[in-house]
Amino acid sequence: MGNPINLEFSEKFDQLRAKEYSPKPEDGLSRRLSHRRDVQLARRALVLAGEPGLVLDLPCGTGRFWPVLAEKTNRVIIAADNSADMLEMACKSQPREVVERICPLQTSAFAIDLPDNAVDSIFCMGLMHHIGEAQQRKALLSEFHRVSRDSVIVSLWVDGNFKAWKRKQLEKRRRQDGGKDIYQNRFVIAAATAEKEFVDAGFNIQDRLDFLPLYAMWRVYVLRKG
């Protein structure tokens, strides 16, 4: 195996950053509504994937989807993250009865420390829109295909909606203002490009779930191994 892939944005997740990323339910109505919709999509995706019994949550971040994953009482949840600080924060911030259901694992999404076909499903929310390079997405999807024996639930930002158009206009203005080399850690991926990459990695696209059709960029895909 070659050199491991390290995303620049992931380096910020030290202990202080982990505290900043801890759940903040009091952060306002908009954030609460957004989280509620995220939960709805996650719950729906799990149903469409057949309510998998052994799930790898990667990256798990602060564990904000653990309560949803734990709704199935006999589900085994492996919660993995590249950052030990994020894992520690997640275990401290989530309800005890949920944390007791969790098997924590520190590992990279690009080199998952699990054997082939180790889990029923991989649940990946909030990573792929940080990956702007096609080769890195290919490496990620290859690992997902190796480790999951059945399905992958993955979210990303896609084009073909108002928010993506607005973001494109903003980036265009920044370039015109001389900000060509501004660091970018979130990317909109053309839906056609993402879907081709899924198929090339050996997946079939079962379902597409949009946060808000034609308006929001956020989309959740339910993929099945071909």
Question: What do these coordinates show?
Answer:
It is a single chain. The chain is globular and about 50 Å long. Helix content is 37%, strand content 21%. About 3% of the residues have low confidence. The longest helix is centred in the first third of the chain and has 20 residues. The chain has a single domain, classed as 3-Layer(aba) Sandwich (Rossmann fold), CATH 3.40.50. The chain is built from 8 helices and 7 strands, in the order H-H-E-H-E-H-H-E-E-H-E-H-H-E-E. The protein is α/β, with parallel strands linked by helices and 226 residues long.
Radius of gyration, Cα only, in angstroms? 17 Å
Name of the top-level CATH class: Alpha Beta
Briefly note the CATH topology name.
Rossmann fold
Number of helices: 8
Number of strands: 7
Which CATH-level-2 architecture?
A: 3-Layer(aba) Sandwich
Protein structure class: alpha/beta
Give the helices and strands, then pairings.
Layout: H1 15-20, H2 29-48, E1 54-57, H3 66-69, E2 76-81, H4 84-93, H5 96-99, E3 102-106, E4 119-124, H6 134-147, E5 148-157, H7 162-176, H8 191-200, E6 203-210, E7 218-225
Parallel strand pairs: 1-2, 1-4, 2-3, 4-5
Antiparallel strand pairs: 5-7, 6-7
Summary?
The protein is α/β, with parallel strands linked by helices. It contains 8 helices and 7 strands; from the N terminus they run H-H-E-H-E-H-H-E-E-H-E-H-H-E-E. It starts with 14 loop residues before the first helix and ends with a strand.
